[in-house]
Amino acid sequence: MRDGHRMVTVMTTTNAELYRLMAWLSPAYPVGAFSYSHGIEWLVETGAITDAANLQRWLADILLCGSGRNDAILFAAAYRAVRREDFEALCDVAMCANAIASTAERRVETHAQGSAFAEITANTWGSTNLSRLAAIYPRAISYPVAVATAAADHGIALEPALEAYFHAFAANLVSAGVRLIPLGHTDGQRVLMQLEQAVADTAALGLAGDLSQLSNITIMAEIAAMKHETQYTRLFRS
Fold it and tell me: Do residues 55 and 41 make contact, with C-beta atoms less than 8 angstroms apart?
């Protein structure tokens, strides 16, 4: 449908699918997302992020050009492998996800959340293929791979699953920025509002991409992740 000068894709999501996405990606789902800043803590300390405008620009770049873009491609690839029942391909995606995590804290962030998501989902909602992946893949399962596998198991459409995942990713980092800079909650919500298109575009990159397109040009964000490892005073784990 057309909204002014923009073409808008209408997605149909059932109430049950929407409920699962809201539950799994809620701050109340115990994966510990609140304890990670994705390097923002070091950027605030050094003055690279000082206000809402800085935060919005950094997060948009991370989504579109850095770890967000890669996670979108990994999410879509894992989802499609599950739908094809191709477990060799699913293990390959899990391996790529581990390889692309370029710093120690990035690996902790994605592995700890992935492991927590897999455990709590297996004990509540259930995900046959997530449990199977944990049994056949000998290493930690990254967070986007875990969520994508569960979404595919529950028949949730890929596009809304991607959108929900990256809304939650952005919201968590906005919350970190609100606490660190600090910002008022109204400014934090303005940042999240301004990231709407970046979240949608990140999801679109996942839908259109494949594993051969994994890359990362957000060099300063990666340096921030490394510097955070030795930061003297820290509130966050990354």
Answer: no
